[in-house]
Amino acid sequence: MLSVALAGKPNAGKSTFYKAATMADVDVGNYPFTTIDPNRGVTHARTRCPCLDREERCGNCEDGVRYVPVELLDVAGLVPGAHEGRGLGNQFLDALTDADVILAVVDAAGGTNAEGEPVEVGTYDPVEEADFVEEELEQWLVGIIERNWESVVRKSRSPDFDIDEALTEMLTGFGATEYDVAASLRALDYPDDPQQWTDEDKERLARDIRERTKPIVLVANKADVAPPENLERLRNSDKPVIATTADGELALRTAAEAGVIDYLPGDEDFDVLGEVSDEQKQGLETIRSVLTEHGGTGVQQAINTAVYDVLDMVTSYPVQNETRWTDGTGETLPDAFLLPRGSTPKDLAFSVHSDIGEGYLHAVDARSKRRIAEDYELEEGDVVKIVSTAT
């Protein structure tokens, strides 16, 4: 399952975002290191369900809104110098090893200082932390490279030494694939002899690997109480920036579960279903004004930006019956898989099960009922019948 990680300093709102996105029971508190052990849960990317192209809804969506599961990881708060072990730095950074993309949560209201301690709203500049997570991650990678460099130097004394192989072996240990490492090495100029590498060479390698393996979306949280100029300045970042109110999303999700409002994660508005007190009405209208201004609470938008824009994923739906769009039990569109753009039907087959991938024969487009070419690149919303010796 695709893994999205929440990172940032203490009290920026990571745990509230996590709870709002997963509705899991987690500790949410206004003090440093509310989260000690990483929280792992399931959230969802939101997309259009293909059943909207048929007369009836599939039963696996919310009136045509499909939610595709992804893992959400919430780790301990990050403080300056985390890569040197400050706070829970090493524990935090190690927990990010397998993350595919990072949501860097920033207190856009400027109500917490660099250490995550509460201060008067607007007295701390959130732009100071726009690149915070990125810098700590890259320095952490530099430290790993430095600690393992002597081993690379020793291997270089062997007559069959290959620096690309040595670096691949080292870097795949913390989330980089062989493809990632090969792409980085192609993009960089570096000495063949590891003893000639400079600190700048190692930093360039760390930066390139981080960009490829841990892309970042900036979550400008507490946007409902943030000075507008803070949001504008944060949007000047070189990363995608999503204005967010995790508190607002949590309130809406809680109200929806209680049957007070009709609301789905990612909606731009909601309907009140029953009687509410004047205080509740005022609170809901305050949140509604944020939805109107920003097009939503930002929580679902941040997840979707990470999955569909930054990672460039597409959603594909495997079926066994291309006419009814059902599986072997007659369930319509039971499964949805996220795959990198450029994936083929055979890649989808392997995602379903390795045996189905190994026995792959061909695939059929369930819309046109025609066989799909071997090199066809899957598009968002494709419904595909996989023909395999294993089915």
Percentage of β-strand residues? 15-25%
Number of helical regions = 12
Mean pLDDT: 90
CATH level 1 class label of one domain: Alpha Beta
The CATH superfamily of one domain is P-loop containing nucleotide triphosphate hydrolases
What is the helix content? 25-40%
Task: Give the SSE order as H and E letters.
Answer: EHEEHEHHHHEHEHEEHHEEHHEEE
CATH topology of one domain: Rossmann fold
- Low-pLDDT ranges: 28-36
Most strands sheet: 6 strands, mixed
- Helix/sheet category: alpha/beta
Which strand order does the major sheet show? 2-3-1-4-5-6
Termini, distance in Å? 23 Å
Radius of gyration: 23 Å
Large-scale geometry: flat
> Number of DSSP strands?
13
- What's the architecture of one domain in CATH terms? 3-Layer(aba) Sandwich
